[in-house]
Amino acid sequence: MPTLNIRYTEINQRINDACKHYERNPDNICLLAVSKGQHYSAIKQLYALGQRQFGESYLNETLEKQSQLAKLNIEWHYIGRIQSNKTADIAQHFAWVHSVDRLKIANRLNDQRDNDAPALNICLQVNINQENSKGGVNESDAVALAKEITQLPNLRLRGLMALPQRESDISKQREHFACLRHLRDEINAHGLQLDTLSMGMSNDFTAAIAEHSTHLRIGSALFGPRQT
User: Fold this and answer.
1) What average pLDDT does range 219-225 have in this prediction?
2) Which of 53, 124, 180, 185 is deepest in the core (most CB within 10 A)?
3) Is the pLDDT of residue 227 over 70?
4) If you average pLDDT over residues 78-96, what whole number do you get?
5) d(CA 71, CA 77)
């Protein structure tokens, strides 16, 4: 099995190749290493290679990792479903939250964010395929929710996130990502300035790059099989 060093080099090369093919600037794309389920030692190893942004979904696991890695200048992103009783810790221990899909959660994050801390970067999770098994605001409600969140002083609405249904055909993958991009443009037409599209994972990030993703959430292709 390839080492973490090799996989990290290969992923970055694939991102650069896709950027060249689709005429994207790789400097405008953030590789978000999805480290949920991975031991903190793997994060430390990847950090030594230059990686700084890490995505997590399991709060208690992340808090333990943060304690072990407190000396490292890591930018932590929360990408999992948010329960109301978890918002205080999320508001206090993360720089980004990619999975906000209702005003109640946004209000709690805003109220529980330290007023002296930088504004918490927020992405709205959009359920672009209307799948009951996934969270996310409906496309028809996204503009209204975005407008309400921009009024919250401790949050900074940055963009949209989606977990589209799995497709093997790149043209189908691009269709889903294009829907999110068009929704971002529709929201911006209402006077907002969203600059982030959090879309693309291990199996479809090339299509996401083609549709102007800014944040690629890469887990298994980078770390290998998830550890217990």
Assistant:
1) 89
2) 124
3) no
4) 97
5) 17
Contact 211, 202 (CB under 8 A): no
Query: Burial letters for 188-214: b for 16+ Cβ neighbours within 10 Å, e otherwise?
Result: eeeebebebbbbbbeebbbbbbbbbbb
Q: Which domains does the chain have, with CATH numbers?
A: 4-223 (3.20.20.10)
pLDDT of res. 224: 83
**Digit-coded pLDDT (tens) for 123-178:** 999 999 888 878 899 999 999 999 999 999 999 999 999 999 999 999 999 999 99
Q: Which residues pair with 33 in a beta bridge?
A: 54, 218
